[in-house]
Amino acid sequence: MDSVEYERTIAARFAIFDQDGNGYIDRADFSAAAKAVLAEFSVKARSDKGQALYDGAEAFWQGMAGIADVDGDQRVTRTEFVTGAVKRLRDNPQRFAEIARPFLRAVAAVADEDGGGVAPAAAERALRALGVEPEACRTAAAELAEDGDGRIAEDAIVAAFAAYCTTAEPDA
Ligand code: CA
Ligand code: CA
């Protein structure tokens, strides 16, 4: 990919994390993400699933800040995101997966509406609620469902999300 493409990809990834679009990533963005997912599935914040989601969002923020908030001002700027998060997470996707896992596990629990696992359509709704481009949501949900029993495994969700956030390859 050329540098223009790369810039565009990074901008899209940054926009996912910068939920309120104010130009930096902070704790409020992670709370907003949790809130959006709960709203999509009509789950109350004051419930076990709701609490787990907010806890996961806080852990995700702490992990992100630990990796990327170089100057420690509790904000991850685009520059910090590019130089810190993207590069280091690409070098170590496993670390990213562990940081994101509690949040993604909680999202999966919210999206598992009948207790039988996450259906592809529910995964698509969850991704859309998180601000992922609609086309990418459809593609991701279809790919995730491909080699399972019709429901999506947590590990597949974590791996796919880590790959989406950390690779510099163009969406295809
Ligand atoms: Ca923000
Ligand atoms: Ca900072």
The name of the CATH architecture is Orthogonal Bundle
Q: What is the CATH class?
A: Mainly Alpha
Q: Can you give the mean pLDDT?
A: 86
- Helix content class: 55-70%
Q: How many separate domains?
A: 1
Number of strands: 2
Strand composition percent: under 5%
Low-confidence stretches: none
- The named CATH superfamily: EF-hand
Look up the CATH topology.
Answer: Recoverin, domain 1
Number of helices: 8
N to C succession of SSEs:
HEHHEHHHHH
Largest sheet: 2 strands, antiparallel
Bound heterogens, unique: calcium ion
Radius of gyration: 15 Å
What structural class do helix, strand and pairing data support?
mainly alpha
Alpha-carbon distance between the two ends: 12 Å
What is the spatial order of strands in the main beta sheet?
A: 1-2
What is the global morphology?
Answer: globular
Description of the molecule:
The protein has 172 residues and is mostly helical. It has a single domain (3-166), classed as EF-hand (Recoverin, domain 1), CATH 1.10.238. 69% of the residues lie in helices and 2% in strands. It has 8 helices and 2 strands; from the N terminus they run H-E-H-H-E-H-H-H-H-H. It has helices spanning 3-17, 27-40, 48-68, 78-91, 93-111, 120-129, 134-146, 154-166; strands spanning 24-25, 76-77. It has a two-stranded antiparallel sheet with strand order 1-2. The mean pLDDT is 86. Residues 18, 20, 22, 24-26, 29 line the site of one calcium ion. One calcium ion (CA) is lined by residues 18, 20, 22, 24-26, 29.
